[in-house]
Design brief:
With 239 residues, the protein is mainly alpha-helical. Helices cover 51% and strands 0% of the residues. The chain has helices at 6-11, 29-41, 50-61, 67-80, 95-105, 110-128, 137-145, 158-176, 179-185, 200-205, 212-218. Helix 2 (29-41) packs across helix 3 (50-61), helix 5 packs across helix 8 (158-176) and helix 6 packs across helix 8 (158-176). It is elongated, with a radius of gyration of 26 Å.
Length: 239
């Protein structure tokens, strides 16, 4: 799977009993301080209300995934976005930690995600006699290939397909919203444009041209990196 396909897949088109957030009955002082540290390291709560900051602290201090589930999420996310010569893998970018937070921030994802991991382990045990993370890389890819392509998947794989679609979208969202992912895309953000004036063929078509003053003051490629300065009479100052 080409990692850059995930941007396109991102915008393309209940299991068992309910599961609940495994939040401790009483959050320790150490957990709260740890969550505050995480928030500070990720922008310091800039633009957040006091209520939102407190909610973030509570969510960071709580936990949802079990150790086994988090390992499964890590393996899946690295299958979806592996490391290459451009950047690191999904786990290098912190995608499992992102998913842990999202599960608490969007509780409606908890049951289908946990159920999907259970489905994946059950399917893996039927095929290979082991849970998914204990199988070989080849076996993991064999199973993933059966649920990664909705148009080609067998009807009995529908639950797995839906689960993998959701995991792929979350992985892509988590990865491509990090500094690593943004650099991977080559996204430059808002930058000053370079204007070379109206193209010559367009000027000729309309029978107009630049006067000498405009060319000298506004369309001088050799000075495009210099910030213009003007005197009180609005004449360009050349240093």
């Amino acid at each position: 799977m080409d990692r850059r396909e995930h941007l396109r897949l991102l915008v393309s088109g209940s299991f068992g009993a309910g599961f609940f957030l495994n939040e401790p009955a009483e959050i320790s002082k150490e957990d709260i301080e740890t969550s505050k540290k995480i928030i500070r390291e990720n922008g310091g709560g800039y633009g957040r209300t006091d209520a939102e900051i407190k909610r973030d602290e509570r969510l960071h201090a709580a936990s949802f995934f079990t150790e086994h589930e988090l390992k499964t999420v890590a393996v899946l996310s690295d299958i979806i976005i592996p490391a290459d010569d451009v950047s690191g893998s999904a786990t290098d970018a912190g995608v499992p930690e992102f998913m842990e937070f999202i599960m608490k921030d969007m509780p409606y994802l908890q049951t289908p995600t946990r159920g999907g991991i259970m489905w994946l382990d059950n399917e893996s045990k039927k095929r290979f006699g082991k849970v998914f993370i204990n199988t070989s890389s080849k076996q993991q890819l064999e199973l993933v290939d059966d649920i990664a392509y909705p148009d080609d998947a067998k009807p009995e794989m529908e639950y797995g397909v839906n689960f993998f679609n959701r995991m792929r979208n979350l992985t892509a969202t988590g990865f491509f919203t990090t500094e690593m992912g943004i650099k991977d895309m080559g996204y430059k953000g808002n930058q000053a444009n370079i204007w070379d004036g109206v193209p010559e063929n367009v000027l000729k078509k309309h029978g107009i041209s630049y006067d000498k003053k405009t060319l000298e003051e506004c369309v001088r490629n050799s000075e495009r990196g210099i910030v213009a300065k003007w005197d009180d009479d609005m004449n360009l100052i050349r240093e």
